[in-house]
Write a structure and sequence with these properties.
Blueprint: H1 2-12, E1 31-36, E2 42-49, E3 52-60, E4 66-69, E5 77-82, E6 89-93, E7 99-104, E8 113-115, H2 118-146, H3 151-174, H4 181-184, H5 194-207, H6 212-242, E9 255-257, E10 263-265, E11 273-279, H7 284-300, E12 305-311, H8 316-326, E13 331-333, H9 342-346, E14 354-358, E15 364-367, H10 371-381
Parallel strand pairs: 1-7, 11-12, 12-13
Antiparallel strand pairs: 1-4, 2-3, 2-5, 5-6, 7-8, 9-10, 11-14, 14-15
Amino acid sequence: MMSTMRTTFFLLLPAILFSACGTGQPTGRSITAHVAGGAGRTLYLEKFSANQPTRIDSVKLDGDGKGTLRPPVMPLDFYAVSMGENDRLILILDSTESVAFEAAADHLSDPESVTGSAHSMLMHDLFKEMKTYSTERQELVGRINADRNDSAAIASIERLNTDFYTRCRDFVTKHTGSPAVLAAVQNLNIQNDLALFQQVRDSLGKTIPRSEYYVAFRDQVSRMEQQLAAMKAQEEQMARLDNLIPVGSEAPDFAQSAPDGKNLSLSSLRGKVVLIDFWASWCKPCRMENPNVKRVYERFKGKGFEILGVSLDKDKNAWTGAIAQDGLPWKHVSDLAFWNNAAAQQYGVSSIPYTVLVDRDGKVLAKNLRGPALEEKLAEVLK
């Protein structure tokens, strides 16, 4: 499983740029390999671009499975060593380091040792922790699958997940400037740890600015920043709209056409407790909520309760058809202006279904109540 995790990490980061110099001159630096079971086989040094491997150098291993790769000048980045198969040893290399590793031919992705490259050593230490975590987690998942009531296993996996998250976070915090952290941040929640992701982006922008993996990570952080900014703006907008007509204020009057073409105003219902129900025939959540609204209407209609449905439809046949289909016996109006419905704009409606509960004196009692909350409020008001 960990081999798959490492291979997936290396392959699935989006590819943007490949700048290795496959025909350049050797630097004198080297990658010394000792591959058990690899005698006579060819070892390749690869760089991925657009998820496709490009071979930079190769060497035929001797009878002891030993050989030395002497790559050309390379920028600091992620590289892979393979035997032409999917099992790959991931290394973080540049042209200033001589690296040595020992691994089995059928487990290149899980080497016995990596020395000479501080970034690679750091990354493979992390991979060992990931392997331990994965093994322990698989065991606990097996116990839980066998017995869903195994509270000890459930508690253990929660502690294990929390501890692993903490260790990954500590790893990233401690080694922010190392490309190795790109393997660790995949285990973190970018929304919860955005500030840390931003630190990594800024640090790696100085060390591996042209790496396709850095570019992918940078773009991931940028997308989350944009999403969070949009969410914040939406929340602020909803708060502003919500404050247009605060609870306790006078409910603004409006008048629109009923299905029979006659104008009907909110003020004409003064003396009753009125639920202004903003909805539309095309709104699935609204249609799903209608049976609950009907039940509430039937319970309280004899106690001075009325509903004024305000439709955000733009097609009269669709509007009146939905009223008939859902069997909605209360009063209805619309100006057939879709989201530009005048009453909806007046009341700051940004999504539907949306309700405003108005008391007998025309004051706003509550907003956006549905289901049990609406029923409880009406039971309180209409005693």
